[in-house]
Design goal:
By secondary structure, the chain is an alpha/beta fold. It has 12 helices and 12 strands.
């Protein structure tokens, strides 16, 4: 088989996969129907976040949800800057905030330990988690709770990054693409993953799997907990793609930080289900075929055609995701995303399988 024929096959597979994602996304429920006002505990694990923790907490206190129905627990994960002092000053002004230190004598490590500490101290029936470098919309709690109809045990949500230039914009589009696939998987009844800065679950579902103490340690604790709850078969799940639940995060500030993030995510996803690996394999082969074209002078035109068709599919999917969260303006960074995406899909497997230990927040795993 010649190059052009193989490229045609991979392009058809890739575009067919995009079509399946679009179908799955259409099946995702947007608006919740539950009128309940369940008690909620929001957990924020913070380690050396003095620059961002203030806006994060401010957004959590500006919720449309009844003030007496939620609490905010900030777990100081051995910060070495002014994070804890900032949080304690804010807690002195608002009784909804509690600031506690991460447990010391525990078998858990890093962020997982901080989250588990916060959940143990929580009073809510629902646990909602976001990161200290994120801000949430005023409707975040109210809209999330509305998806907790009877039997729903866990709800994921979409996060994007503040996009101000090509570097941050390509990162935000990357998140939109990956989390759009995660939401589409839920629509197809094949839940794949989630992100820990926009995650919620019933405490009962968390306790049923033994909490973080009861599941194998992972540097992507959000993925492990999501899969553990889904695998019980006792709980329904949801993954709305809606601006009322959209969390905004700070982008990585450098290439080295971005590489460490991708390394961590890749390592944490090594126990992904078969369908997830198939998605990655199709993307890997398609990108490899596109980059291989220039090595054969006569195949350059075919490679460019394959890249163009892939880009059309990528744009259509990103447009569908971003339209739902009203962030179509991020598409102005699509060209930067395409260049970045073409390379990183090929580099990631080597980074995961041959990379050293994960370094995150000053810790080595």
């Amino acid at each position: 088989m010649n190059y052009e024929f193989l490229l045609a096959i991979t392009t058809v597979l890739y575009l067919s996969q995009i079509g399946i994602f679009l179908y799955g996304l259409r099946r995702v429920s947007q608006r919740g129907g539950s009128p309940q006002q369940l008690p909620v505990s929001v957990i924020v694990a913070a380690r050396n976040e003095e620059r961002s923790i203030g806006p994060c907490i401010a957004s959590l206190l500006a919720q449309t949800y009844p003030r007496d129905r939620y609490e905010v627990i900030v777990v100081d994960d051995a910060s070495e800057d002014g994070t804890r002092a900032i949080c304690e000053n804010l807690a002195a002004e608002d009784r909804r905030i509690r600031v506690i230190p991460a447990a010391v004598k525990t078998n858990l490590r890093g962020k997982v330990n901080a989250l588990a500490t916060g959940i143990r101290e929580s009073h809510g029936e629902l646990i909602m988690i976001t990161d200290a470098d994120c801000t949430v919309p005023p409707t975040w709690i109210e809209a999330t709770v509305s998806h907790y109809e009877p039997g729903v045990g866990i709800v994921g949500g979409v996060s994007l990054q503040h996009a101000t230039d090509a570097f941050s914009g390509m990162q935000s589009l990357d998140w939109a693409f990956l989390l759009g696939i995660a939401a589409a998987g839920v629509g197809l009844k094949d839940p794949l993953s989630t992100i820990g800065n926009n995650l919620s679950f019933r405490k009962a579902a968390y306790q049923q799997v033994g909490g973080y103490e009861g599941i194998p340690f992972s540097i992507t604790e959000d993925y492990s907990l999501f899969q553990a709850i889904v695998r019980t078969g006792n709980w329904k799940y949801a993954y709305p793609v809606d601006e009322s639940l959209l969390v905004m995060s700070a982008p990585c500030r450098s290439w080295s930080e971005l590489i460490r993030q991708k390394h961590r995510w890749g390592k944490g996803g090594l126990d992904m289900k078969v369908s997830g690996f198939l998605i990655m394999a199709i993307g890997f082969v398609q990108h490899l075929m596109i980059l291989a074209g220039p090595l054969m002078y006569s195949a350059v035109a075919a490679a460019l055609t394959g890249w163009f068709l892939k880009a059309v599919g990528d744009y259509a999917f990103l447009h569908a995701v971003l339209r739902r969260v009203r962030r179509l303006d991020h598409l102005r960074f699509f060209h930067a995303f395409q260049l970045y995406y073409l390379l990183y899909v090929l580099v990631l497997p080597f980074l995961v399988f041959f990379g050293r230990r994960v370094i995150w927040k000053g810790r080595v795993y």
